[in-house]
Amino acid sequence: MKNIAICYSEHAVKVSDSYCSGASNPADVSIPNAVTSVYRVELATKKHLLISLTWRDNQLRSNHLFSVNIFENEDDSFSGSTKFSKIFGAPRGAKLYELNNGLKIEVVWDLSRAEYESRPEPITGFYVMILVDSQPGLILGDVEGEPEARKRVSDCRASPEFWLVSRGEYFSGEGLYSAKVRFCETGIYHDILVKLCGEDRVLSVYVDRKSVVEVRRLRWNFRGNATVFLDGVLVDLLWDVHDWLFEFGPRGKGYGAVFVFRRRRGSDSRLWLEDKCKSFEEGEREKGGFSFVICASRNPG
């Protein structure tokens, strides 16, 4: 005999590629209040680090903040202790830090001419450099257009090697979240829209205005997964909307809904839920892995 969970789940998740001309009203789409990108960095010494960069709006000063976290682990995960964690709010500057283990971290940045769109991260007119023991680790933005920054890079013995392993966007507000994401370096940017709507709380996911996943009876299917095909690769979608539906936990604290889009590695033919599940910040063990995460709270702030 089938158990009740299986009976309710059957036919509740629909995967399709139907086109939807009215997927969203731009005025109703929530704007992210923070964006985090995680990079795996290989130094000239062949040492590996994970560096996360988070951009936030500073509403008190009408400017933007960014924070840097650096982790050092043999398994390229965030499960160990944080080696470095700082928040930066000035439009430009250079800061040098020496850690207890002797590692020297230098952060050089210029956001004075940065341009922004709807998200708290700059899109042009900026640069951020993170140097480890005087060697470049992570370089973002327009370094070539800045003589001082360009000289710092040219003085280094080797060019850094780094790649994006995960990206997360954090939203507040009711159930309409959009993002642009590219799942591989040779692919195109896709428009992703996630909708949580209706009295029955139907979950709908659109990619490039096409409906790819629809989940009904969400109160019984508040956690689950589906698979879509993008840019010639399989992308697994995991959702957990339990806290969002049932308002679990202190009001206004934490994120009530999480949606993870994880590109499978070439050798991975299994659903990623069959793997040892890890949180988004843990990154990937291989250069070919990438995860995109939407975290949403129903309560502003």
Polypeptide structure, described:
A hairpin with a 2-residue loop joins strand 15 and strand 16 (210-215). Helices cover 6% and strands 48% of the residues. The protein has 301 residues and is mainly beta. The longest helix is centred in the middle third of the chain and has 8 residues, at 147-154. The protein has helices at residues 4-9, 147-154, 242-246, and strands at residues 13-19, 34-42, 48-58, 63-71, 82-88, 92-98, 104-110, 115-116, 122-124, 127-132, 135-141, 161-172, 176-181, 190-197, 202-207, 210-215, 223-230, 233-240, 257-263, 290-297. The chain has two domains: 10-28 and 173-297, no CATH class; 36-165, no CATH class. The strands form four sheets. It has a nine-stranded mixed beta sheet. A five-stranded antiparallel beta sheet has the order 1-16-15-14-13, with no helix packed on it. It has a four-stranded antiparallel beta sheet with strand order 6-7-10-11, with no helix packed on it.
The helix-strand sequence is: HEEEEEEEEEEEHEEEEEEEHEE
Principal-axis shape equals elongated
Count of separate structural domains: 2
**Overall average pLDDT:** 78
Q: Which bin fits the share of residues in helices?
A: under 10%
What is the terminal-to-terminal distance? 46 Å
User: Tally the helices: what do you get?
Assistant: 3
- The order of strands across the largest sheet is 5-4-3-2-12-20-19-18-17
